[in-house]
Task: structure prediction
Amino acid sequence: QVQLVESGGGSVQAGGSLRLSCAGSGYGSCRYAMSWYRQTPGKEREFVSGVNSNGATSYADSVKGRFTISQDNAKNMLYLQMNSLKPEDTAMYYCKVYLYGSGCTYKAYWGQGTQVSVSL
Result:
């Protein structure tokens, strides 16, 4: 059973930093790509950053230069270092894993989310 557990959210002032973590389990021998999304009330969930199985990273334009995604494959951990936070970064942040590969069900799984609140 695939499980994702996010942590590290909180309340900070603008200009501050937070580091989000996502602990994954249950991947078996599947290959996977991981990413962070965020959502605010009344809006669709939006892509923030992702890293594929080759280690290639991507970022939304709104966070480029401020956020850094990283992963520890040995521990099945995903991180998001968020610097120079802005009030518009306030959202629920979700970890997502997409499993694929021979013998695997191609499917995306989501964590429960961790709240980030940035105040002026």
Observations:
- The chain is about 0% helix and 55% strand.
- Residues 70 and 79 are 5 Å apart (CA to CA).
